[in-house]
Design a protein that fits this description.
Blueprint (H helix, E strand, L loop, with lengths): L7 E4 L5 H13 L13 H8 L6 E7 L2 E9 L9 E6 L8 H15 L4 E6 L4 H9 L3 E5 L3 E7 L5
Antiparallel strand pairs: 1-2, 2-3, 3-4, 5-7, 6-7
Length: about 160
C-alpha cells in the first residue's frame, strides 16, 4: 500500500459535476462497469447525481490530486430503511486505502440516519472489494446466480 493521502469527503454538489463526470468516464474506460453498475458511467449520470435532491446520500472524496473517490447510500428515496452502499475509486488512485476511507465515511452517515444496517452487492470475482468489505465487518451471502450480498449490522453497539 502507498502512503495514505489526506482525504476530504463532502456531500456531492452541483460544482462537483465535471470532476464526477471525469471519474465515471475513467471507470468506464477501465471496464469497471462489469463490477460497478449502479448507474451508467457517463456525464449525464454525473450531472443527475450532482444535482440530486432527496434522501439518498452521494459523496465525493478529494485529495490534493483532485476527486479520487465516489460513494453512495441509496434506497432511502424509494422508502427503504436499509440503504445500499456503493463506492468507486479513480483508477489512477487505487491501492492507497481510499475505498476503505470512503466506506468508513459512509457508515456514520447511515448510523446518524438511524439505518439498522447497510447492504451492498459484490461479484465473487471482485476479490479486492470482497476483502475490503469483509475486513470492515460485512457478512457476505451468496445470491445466485452471480452475486454476493453483504450486510453490516449497525445497531450492535451503536
Amino acid at each position: 500500500m502507498h502512503d495514505r493521502l489526506p482525504v476530504e469527503f463532502a456531500p456531492i454538489r452541483r460544482e462537483h459535476t465535471s470532476a464526477l463526470a471525469q471519474l465515471l468516464v475513467a471507470l468506464d474506460r477501465m471496464g469497471d462497469g462489469q463490477n460497478f453498475h449502479p448507474h451508467p458511467l457517463d456525464t449525464l449520470t454525473a450531472d443527475r447525481i450532482a444535482n440530486h435532491v432527496g434522501a439518498d446520500y452521494y459523496c465525493v472524496g478529494f485529495t490534493a490530486a483532485g476527486l479520487v473517490s465516489y460513494g453512495m447510500l441509496r434506497g432511502w428515496d424509494e422508502g427503504y430503511d436499509v440503504p445500499s452502499a456503493g463506492l468507486a475509486v479513480h483508477p489512477d488512485h487505487r491501492g492507497q486505502g481510499l475505498g476503505r476511507l470512503t466506506m468508513l465515511h459512509l457508515q456514520p452517515i447511515a448510523i446518524a440516519r438511524r439505518a439498522p444496517s447497510i447492504c451492498l452487492s459484490v461479484y465473487p470475482t471482485n476479490h479486492a472489494a470482497r476483502s475490503l468489505y469483509q475486513s470492515l465487518g460485512y457478512t457476505l451471502h451468496e445470491e445466485p446466480p452471480t452475486r454476493l450480498i453483504g450486510t453490516l449490522n449497525l445497531s450492535a453497539g451503536h
